[in-house]
Amino acid sequence: MTTEAADVVRPASNALPKALRDKLMRAPVAGLSAQLRKRGLNNVTIEGVRPLLPGVKMVGTARTLRFVPNREDLFASHGGGYNAQKRLFDAVGPGEIIVIEARGETGAGTLGDVLALRAHVAGAAGIVTDGGVRDIEAVAAVGIPVHAAGAHPAVLGRKHVPWDSDLTIACGGTTIRPGDIVVGDDDGVIVVPPAMAEDVVDEALAQEDEDAWIATQVAAGHRVEGLFPLNAQWRNKYEQSRAEEPNR
Amino acid sequence: MTTEAADVVRPASNALPKALRDKLMRAPVAGLSAQLRKRGLNNVTIEGVRPLLPGVKMVGTARTLRFVPNREDLFASHGGGYNAQKRLFDAVGPGEIIVIEARGETGAGTLGDVLALRAHVAGAAGIVTDGGVRDIEAVAAVGIPVHAAGAHPAVLGRKHVPWDSDLTIACGGTTIRPGDIVVGDDDGVIVVPPAMAEDVVDEALAQEDEDAWIATQVAAGHRVEGLFPLNAQWRNKYEQSRAEEPNR
Amino acid sequence: MTTEAADVVRPASNALPKALRDKLMRAPVAGLSAQLRKRGLNNVTIEGVRPLLPGVKMVGTARTLRFVPNREDLFASHGGGYNAQKRLFDAVGPGEIIVIEARGETGAGTLGDVLALRAHVAGAAGIVTDGGVRDIEAVAAVGIPVHAAGAHPAVLGRKHVPWDSDLTIACGGTTIRPGDIVVGDDDGVIVVPPAMAEDVVDEALAQEDEDAWIATQVAAGHRVEGLFPLNAQWRNKYEQSRAEEPNR
Amino acid sequence: MTTEAADVVRPASNALPKALRDKLMRAPVAGLSAQLRKRGLNNVTIEGVRPLLPGVKMVGTARTLRFVPNREDLFASHGGGYNAQKRLFDAVGPGEIIVIEARGETGAGTLGDVLALRAHVAGAAGIVTDGGVRDIEAVAAVGIPVHAAGAHPAVLGRKHVPWDSDLTIACGGTTIRPGDIVVGDDDGVIVVPPAMAEDVVDEALAQEDEDAWIATQVAAGHRVEGLFPLNAQWRNKYEQSRAEEPNR
Amino acid sequence: MTTEAADVVRPASNALPKALRDKLMRAPVAGLSAQLRKRGLNNVTIEGVRPLLPGVKMVGTARTLRFVPNREDLFASHGGGYNAQKRLFDAVGPGEIIVIEARGETGAGTLGDVLALRAHVAGAAGIVTDGGVRDIEAVAAVGIPVHAAGAHPAVLGRKHVPWDSDLTIACGGTTIRPGDIVVGDDDGVIVVPPAMAEDVVDEALAQEDEDAWIATQVAAGHRVEGLFPLNAQWRNKYEQSRAEEPNR
Amino acid sequence: MTTEAADVVRPASNALPKALRDKLMRAPVAGLSAQLRKRGLNNVTIEGVRPLLPGVKMVGTARTLRFVPNREDLFASHGGGYNAQKRLFDAVGPGEIIVIEARGETGAGTLGDVLALRAHVAGAAGIVTDGGVRDIEAVAAVGIPVHAAGAHPAVLGRKHVPWDSDLTIACGGTTIRPGDIVVGDDDGVIVVPPAMAEDVVDEALAQEDEDAWIATQVAAGHRVEGLFPLNAQWRNKYEQSRAEEPNR
After folding, report:
1. Fold of the E12-193 domain
2. For the residues F147-171, what does the mean pLDDT come to?
3. Which residues bind substrate (chains A, B, C, D, E, F) (predicted)?
């Protein structure tokens, strides 16, 4: 028997504007990485994590959650019941991606299938943790994109105390601020500062178009000299080609 | 031409009682982990290993095998011919899981397809090694559950000398005694001391039932506050629900 | 619009003789490893790499490419434009396997889909890198066998400067000389010195035949004692069997 | 020419009460570790750090400082000038130990000789960082106890952005709260929750007395059976000995 | 007050014959390593350990002690009181070196000053552990040579259960059998199979003599070509030199 | 008996001009690091190495030597006799620092006391290796500055084949070209591109002067706000002070 959801709370939406989200869904993480590099940002990748399911694209805004190392007295005071982790999973809203600082510690889960489901029902866009995931088969089946450092059957208390949320955190070697844009695919997970997101994605999509055209030339047998990257001569051909097929 | 199996030896069975085995087959490793934690056992996971095939459940009793580091003089005296590894694979019986101490060394295989087949024919319930596996495609095809640290084409002598068996060993950071119960799924591999197995699995299955009911509430849109874990109010609803559907 | 491939250059072929290549395609890497070990070669495996797609066999001759650590002044002078990486991918010929020394550094890609395509069109037999791969989904779809240390969205300049090619390099803990034979499957990637390749593969194939026959005996229920490896008695049976079915 | 210190600010003292501090100065970290273990606290050691100078005892209360990973845009906004690190070193008071969360990252310094001197002049009792130290020779000469993960010549901006202070942090695998008692010697650095400090140190000193007496028995040639730990018979002798020499 | 040592037990001596021991005391570990390599033994070094005090030479025969990973139920049954560690330290005899298998785990001590003193009083020749040492300052002061992976204040139970002794173990990546000869200096610790010890040390000392003479030539300004190693011409000069000063 | 040094070859000097060398001897590596960072060079540190003796300053120009992983067939052909390592140590000239690419492999020595002595006699300014050193006590006593990853008794053949020299190499995570300036102290080892060396060292020495003055202010009790780094007000005082004591 299921109980009526009399206590469901719908949080205000921090989701990205649809147009921006749609563009980010089309831009590969590798392309975003290249554009961020041009702006001097080289350390914006969340490393050491893999997607639970291949071929899944993830786009959203960061909701941060910090776990500190398990210290047995602090777990007793802060770890149980309606702790910081539970509170954050109840608070997450549509379009948000929960990013968990688990210090690269793979010796415990940092979430399981119940919380993955909770986030999914709340409309969250994804979960990223540089720690472990338990119930991994069930979590993958929930349908929410998840990137993690691996599987582990233990509850988080084996290695962590959930401490606080909605603060700047470290995850997979980079820093994430609440509201940062987070994008993930099979290449990895990247953080895009919101202020530059429109420019970055527009340039990334333009570069994808160029790279796709370059790929067709390579498929035809051309060498990459002068072609990748485009020299003046090849760039002319590319621009000419775009003029002829503007809707490609 | 195949020779008649005139030399087949059927060892006495150390397999688990069927009822207990059936319950362990239904209990996720994550659930067993949580119950063992309640009994003060937090370091019972074999870490750094992955299943060769996803979605395969493994339950059995441990048959232990220890490899020591390759020292060239000791490999000459102990490594070849009918060594400790070969003898153990010949001795394994139905329902047993061979657990190999390979010290986390991934630079060599610790078994290949011939021995995996031998164990499978003997009715072994699985193989766990914190070292490598060679002929990994063929081993996966044999049909016996295997958890390992990775693939490597080299024979074990590159890094190991098979030394002894049927003693207490270390594997993946925990300790396994002969006869310990070993359970594996996609979350990992866990060791269950036999004396507490019945209580642990019964409580794990009860908790699974509770967690499944909680999941349906979450799916209906409820927050996890008070629900996960169950407070008094939610626990009443759960118990009421169980009374109404006792065979769920 | 695609441009005519007026600038396609067909390199001279360094591909293996067809007969040798066919034999190597049938010999598992584990089998080659065992034969090389008999010749005193134990450190010929490229470690820390995994195939992008399972079940793909790779055979070819090495074309080497060395990346040195990114030093910002050297990237400025050597990293852009038609750099050592681009030049090597333009020069690769049929049957060759590009082997990249990336020092086990997984924090950047070392190639992407455009270059993977270029190599494929040129008839290269594969790519091995002990660094990362970007556009990994697209690279896997190109159709050329690739073994790498993982996925990463960043361009190589984040961690590397492409420096030189066609020299002896280190990759995954072993040494590769230009022209060395490289073979890969799900067990890993191995290097076979050309001078011994014919003997090694012939013995490996003979051993496979022996191991296959041993496996059928094991499947029939026989113990491995005296059988694996074959003692005199079992060897007689094997030789008898081969005489009866010479085309097996 | 030195300027008059017209701007020196003397912070209020958070130093330990002298009597407690004196007892902690006499209690080896190993002894405190054993007593904390008896209270169920096993994960209270700051690991991966070494003292700059051997034979130096450090006792104080924690003042915490968190560095997050260097993200180039965040370093531009938060890293320079009078940043969180500089502010904390100006704020530290007598008897306090600055504990820096540097995520075990050894590829940059986290402080140098100027700040070490500042802390020393302010009466700080020590500095602990799980990152690097630059100007290490000069820092060691300042006279303030320092425990770090190693030396590195680079400024912190190479790997970090100093972010905030006076919050709960992670350091060397354990958790430190502002005001926690921190004790260091050649065995390592340990965290003592203030509420239990008096009991823990009193029991540690009592145990030291017992262990010292045990050591004299061992020096006289006695076996450790029954002696270490003391059985009833040996305990009687010990208590008798203490009665005879109460001021030992 | 100290009690008379009525319970001191003197074990039978397993110490090396004095002449062999004296020669091993004069042979650098690097020299022994080179001679063992000539006999095909390349994996005989105990790695990851450092001497507590520089400039101390250690020679003896191995007494082995194995620690398995801490599993909380097994520590309860096997870890306390007069456990395997205590029993072995009581049993060690003159000239023996206690070698502890601690699996490279540095997160706990594996011995402290009381047991180091016990071993020293019993005439043990040294202690080697690939784990940690607590009371490290006091242990260094005891006077017995100790090689360890580092310092840690925690008792062994944090990470280990002492399990058994006088069996073949792994330590620092090699294998040690009871009775193996163990030699340590600032270069490291090496294992010498007893059967070859006389030949190995004689050849090592002869090579030291040769290397010392080579060094004097180098000091005089000669190039190493033909000199290191000695070609026929230089070997003549060396032999001539030895003939002139036979007692050097 | 020592032979006359009839075969001594004095190489041409690649040593730094004396004035530049003297300035670099006075500039701490940390200061050089800060100036290189200002020029956009952040990855110029040779990491994972420690000086054999504390308090020793090292300045010179790089002579590079590359070791590739030991592959048993290649060691047979290239590893023995007058190999690439021996040839380079014979060729090194005054003021040069031998930098060895040993891929961070600590499981073998990469030089011993005979070659350290040879380099010292030849007037080399130092040796840097990201591998091990054997005969470490003797090497430290030779008198030439050495930075290494650790001690190991084995000859280089255990893990390496010396392959070539005088080419661009990787060492400790950065890239070194022949002729690059190399500076080492207790903070680490840094690479200075020759073209910018004069400017870098002049600015580093100026900054040292400023930092020393800042330190005296801190010693007098001043806070670091506005002082470190100098704001306009404090800068005035500094410049005033320099005017009053121009020879400080």
Report:
1. Glucose Oxidase; domain 1 (3.50.30)
2. 98
3. 112-115, 134
